[in-house]
């Protein structure tokens, strides 16, 4: 299968049955090989620099009831919070002083955070920090709303499609949610001009190899600028509390497949991967990831944004832990980049 991995690197795709075999029969030696190839591609494009994004979790209130998510509407056991505009701007200030040049505003689909409010927040951040990128990750909105946020100064949007297969989508979400609507949102975001991110949870309940192949082929067609791949991790207060986590091996295999298929994409080593394994962040980077997203949220709220059990938000996962992060990265030959780190299409053949 090594030849397939070489071909994936040069031709940036494989046939579905080749993906199937790679996903089901990848042993430790082959995993090391594909991780190495993907790391090489990442080093060729980005050097040994890792972009940092300051993650601000603006609200854990959500109108949706996704079966996997700890902040789902139907979880009565979490203390809900919503940051004020002042608090969000304060997070940006602290982040800016620490060297962050991208702020990611993420949250549940909170009806109290109206379009007007978000637009105002984006406008104010844009005014205050003209040299920074603003990334939003606030779920599904109308095209008109996405346009308003874009005009107010947002540059990027993260919206994982979670799974391309509609039947699998329905296993993960209640009937009122629709995979098609989510895909339409992604198309709208791309059309408007956002640097758009999508992705999946690896090992989500009911996920089959066929589903993953559909995800790979969908992402190949969409050509997103950012690709978020992290393991599914159970949360104790959700219908999936007893479901097993995704694995590190499958996650880093997929990270490498996506890096080889999308050499220019911005791909984070996710917090979920760092939560699953103590060396998860490093394994992600050594498999081709080039972004990390330390937590900039106020410390007293962080524990309340619990998407899954034991979500990491301290140490190297936190903005105040940048020195620890720098050390961890140095130990594997990498450095933090404080550049904005926009998407640039890589044109050189190699
Ligand atoms: N509401 C926005 C949305 O739907 O895109 C943003 C917030 S949502 C909590 C962000 C991401 O968290 C989701 O796209 C999902 O992939 C991830 N997530 C939620 N629950 C998770 C879990 N149990 N394990 C791993 N990732 C999870």
From TrEMBL:
Q: Does the keyword Iron-sulfur apply?
A: yes
Q: Which SMART domains match?
A: BATS, Elp3
The gene behind this protein is: hydE
Identify which cofactors the protein needs according to its UniProt entry. [4Fe-4S] cluster; [2Fe-2S] cluster
Which GO-annotated molecular functions does the record name?
Answer: 4 iron, 4 sulfur cluster binding; metal ion binding; transferase activity
Which Pfam families does the record associate with it? Radical_SAM
Q: Which organism is it from?
A: Bacteroides finegoldii
Q: What is this protein called in UniProt?
A: [FeFe] hydrogenase H-cluster radical SAM maturase HydE
Q: Which GO terms describe its biological process?
A: sulfur compound biosynthetic process; water-soluble vitamin biosynthetic process
Q: How is the cofactor bound?
A: Binds 1 [4Fe-4S] cluster. The cluster is coordinated with 3 cysteines and an exchangeable S-adenosyl-L-methionine.
Start and end residues of each Radical SAM core domain: 48-270
What Gene3D superfamilies is this protein classified in? Aldolase class I
Residues annotated to bind (3R)-3-methyl-D-ornithine = 137
Highest lineage ranks of the organism?
A: Bacteria, Pseudomonadati, Bacteroidota, Bacteroidia, Bacteroidales
Residues the entry annotates as binding S-adenosyl-L-methionine: 162, 182, 233
Name the positions where [4Fe-4S] cluster binds: 62, 66, 69
State whether keyword Iron-sulfur applies: yes
Keywords of this protein's UniProt record, alphabetized? Answer: 4Fe-4S, Iron, Iron-sulfur, Metal-binding, S-adenosyl-L-methionine
**InterPro entries the UniProt entry points to:** Aldolase_TIM, BATS_dom, Elp3/MiaA/NifB-like_rSAM, FeFe-hyd_HydE_rSAM, HydE/PylB-like, rSAM, rSAM_sf
